[in-house]
Write a structure and sequence with these properties.
Elements lengths: L2 H23 L6 H25 L6 H7 L3 H15 L5 E3 L10 H6 L2 E3 L10 H10 L6 H13 L24 E5 L2 E5 L3
Helix pairs in contact: 1-2, 1-7, 2-4, 2-7, 4-6
Amino acid sequence: MNATYGDTYRVRLRSLEWATDLIRELRHSEDVDAVSVATHWALDAVYDLFEVYRLAAPIGKDHDGWLKDNDAMVIGGLIFIRGEKTHQGVRVDGPNPFKKYRKKFESFADLTDWVWADAATDNPRYQQRLQWYSKLLAGRALWVPLDHAWLWFVDNSPIKIPAQDARQVRGWVEGVRPNYRSQTSGGAQLRGSL
């Protein structure tokens, strides 16, 4: 097996993990652009992982059939919405609709301010992936299907993922965290850590 695929796969997994962690950190952020950037980063990581997967283990031309047969419909839904954001210029994240029904959905309303938006397309070419997206992603907290995708890519890796010991990597970066800016009487103050 090509060692390059293993290294590339590991880097893409790390990218998805970081982007998902950042989305989780931003779950109550009012910075719409920051949430969108993190979501787009995660979707690009899922797409890149799928492409490396296909190179390492050819899956044939019927991607939808393969995704269904391999219990990867969430991946199909994420790839679908990644295509919508890239090729149609649509927003894929949206405000949590349950926030306005706080009394009825108290626990979910406080979980996050951001969920997957409803998809709006009628392209018959992608009806299967649209159905997966609508059933498995739309209305859910942004990070939930991304965590599912990460675990699927780890559990179903077609190649041995090369180990990497953080203690052996000079300057290892654990992850990314947002720095929040708040207004105080003494001027702007940065909070958070990198």
